[in-house]
Amino acid sequence: MITKARYCEGETFSEFMARPVPNHDLWVALSRRVVIPVEYSARVEALGGRWHLLVLSEDWCGDSVNIVPIIAKLADSVSNMDMRILARDENLDIMDTHLTGKSRSIPIVILLNPKFQECGWWGPRPRELQKWVIEKGLKLPKDERYKELRTFYARDHGLTTMSEIVEMLEHCCVRGPIAAPASASSAS
Questions:
Q1: CATH number belonging to the domain at 4-124+160-175, selected among 3.40.30.10, 3.50.50.60, 3.40.50.1100, 3.40.50.2300
Q2: pTM
Q3: How far is C-alpha 112 from the chain's CA centre?
Q4: Within the chain, how many helices (H) and strands (E) appear?
Q5: Which of 55, 140, 141, 157 has its CA 20 to 30 A from that of 11?
């Protein structure tokens, strides 16, 4: 169960980056490269209120390396949102209510309102890329699949992730808290 106390136990992105993590140089390089377009920050600011993003992740995850710095930079670019990271493997009760199909795929971004009630979630990767993984990527050898994933992220510069996250925020902030976490990926 997500509570304010549990949320606050999560690491900030700065705390996460201050400790030794696998592929630290890659995390740093991608974090420095992220640029949040003003339009996305303005759309989040327009939501009003105070919002919290809880990210389930692991430092070894390739999708997390490409997505978590974007989410962190987006949260830092606005005055009405903060973000914390919890390790997936230490928080399986939360993870198991946010599965992608039957998989514990990460990262998962959970939107919490000012009362720390869940309003929606997103993950583990942009819809277009997830569709490709399911339809074609899983048929490829792992090294080829990962090469294609890295190519998508490099060409996209995080724009698809930002767009989908902001759309999820707008939709969920209007809708309000959900009764129970959904069992499939998406904010709807």
A1: 3.40.30.10
A2: 0.90
A3: 13
A4: 9, 4
A5: 157
